[in-house]
């Protein structure tokens, strides 16, 4: 596939770039600071320096691609909103460039649904939601924009992320993974690429976890 990636210099995005290149995909990494991109020069990698919050600046980078992937997110719980503004910008650029496939990473923590156990619904998520109110509101904002976009979107929702190795993980469509409380960034990258390659995930959320 011919992919455009946002968030390529982040802790998840770095794994996503490496995984995509290893799988033979062509990757356009849109970054603010190319010096932060850890992946070495690669014949399938193009680096574009642009602000992802400026639709005009990223339109050429998304036009004609098979899919656009976003692993953007705030660096900490006190940072300004990133996902909501980025979703609006990316959607506008994709509409202008005629690209339809969008896979966007948010999180499972801000969503309480049938996939969660009783303790998770009533105790864990309410407590975590108070601590991460800003990022969770940002994720919810992004998801509203994506659902209303009219694009062929998939939202990937991981739980708490780790730097552990790859291992078998579970996924669930349109609900959280029961008992799936963590996932390595390596496996999140695998889940994102799998979702991008599967047209059946369009119009759905995909949760992943151990």
From TrEMBL:
> Which Pfam families does this entry report, sorted A to Z?
NAD_binding_10
Top-level taxon in the UniProt lineage = Bacteria
Q: Where is the NAD(P)-binding domain?
A: 7-199
List the GO molecular function terms. biliverdin reductase [NAD(P)H] activity; riboflavin reductase (NADPH) activity
Matching entries from InterPro entries are given as: NAD(P)-bd_dom (IPR016040), NAD(P)-bd_dom_sf (IPR036291), Polyketide_Oxido-like (IPR051606)
Name the UniProt record assigns to this protein: Putative NADH-flavin reductase
In its UniProt entry, the species of origin is given as Actinocorallia herbida
């Amino acid at each position: 596939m011919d992919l455009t990636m946002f968030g390529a210099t982040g802790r998840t995005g770095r794994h996503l770039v490496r995984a995509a290149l290893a799988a033979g995909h062509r990757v356009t990494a849109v970054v603010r600071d190319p010096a932060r991109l850890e992946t070495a020069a690669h014949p399938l990698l193009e680096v574009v320096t642009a602000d992802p919050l400026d639709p005009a600046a990223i339109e050429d980078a998304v036009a004609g691609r098979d899919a656009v992937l976003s692993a953007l997110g705030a660096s900490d719980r006190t940072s300004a909103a990133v996902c909501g503004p980025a979703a609006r910008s990316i959607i506008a650029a994709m509409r202008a460039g005629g690209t339809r496939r969008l896979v966007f990473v948010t999180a499972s923590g801000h969503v309480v649904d049938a996939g969660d156990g009783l303790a998770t619904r009533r105790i864990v998520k309410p407590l975590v939601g108070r601590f991460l109110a800003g990022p969770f509101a940002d994720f919810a904002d992004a998801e509203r924009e994506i659902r209303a976009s009219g694009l062929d979107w998939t939202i990937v929702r991981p739980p708490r992320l780790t730097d552990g190795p790859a291992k078998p993980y579970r996924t669930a469509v349109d609900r959280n993974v029961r008992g799936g409380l963590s996932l390595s960034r390596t496996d999140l990258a695998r889940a994102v690429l799998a979702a991008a390659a599967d047209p059946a995930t369009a119009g759905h959320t995909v949760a992943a976890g151990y």
